[in-house]
Amino acid sequence: MREFLKCLWKRSEGAAALEFALVSIPMMLITIGIIEFAFALFQWNTAEKATQFGVRRAVVSAPVAEGINTYNGKTNSNEWGDEPMPDFANSIVVCNGATTQCSNGFTFSSAAHNRIVTKMQEIFPLVAANNVVVEYAPMGLGFVGRCGAVPSVTVRLQNMSYDFIVIDSLLNLVGGPGAASIAMPSFTATMVGEDLNTTSGVSPCV
Question: Using one digit for the tens of pLDDT, what is the confidence trace for 78-99?
């Protein structure tokens, strides 16, 4: 028996196959991880580009906060265009797709919001209406009684996550915690409002 074990110890047939089996498993996992994280990074970049397209659509569409594009800034002490445009509601107006509400008493326009979301979905189909927030910030541009306020418009894409595909399947095979995912950061893009008009009407400044 001792001689057999000595002989077996000296034999080297199949060593390469065994070494390959030991090395291939971690190499495959590393390769899969690289692919998964590369695809996650691709989705992050796509989400950022979708946000840029969304704000571009927002500045040339009717505002989600109804009435901002017709705000004239008139007060009892100033009825006509002698003074710069005052802040509407004295603060930023936030329109959240998750709550379908706008702050500072403005009415949320689902049609205007969906128009922005639809454009973003052309770039990144995973975007949903509840992921998109549109903000209108007063800049003091324009004059009382004419042309309307000229706000800066910010589109924010938030609460997005990337769900792993292969890694998630492997976790389920070994009784893991379930879906593996990475929370994406919020993506924002800002532009100065243009006509804020979905239709190609005549500018009030003409």
Answer: 666 567 777 777 789 999 999 9
19-51: per-residue pLDDT in tens? 667 777 778 778 877 888 888 888 899 999 999
* Contact predicate 142/68, CB 8 Å: no
Contacts of 198 (CB under 8 A, 6+ apart): 60, 61, 62, 112, 115
Q: Which residues pair with 163 in a beta bridge?
A: 181
Beta bridge partners of 156: 133, 188
More confident residue, 27 or 7: 27
User: How far is Cα 119 from Cα 193, in angstroms, rounded to an integer?
Assistant: 17
**How far is residue 44 CA from its own chain's centroid?**
9
Q: C-alpha distances in angstroms, 193 versus 12, 46, 161? A: 75, 24, 29
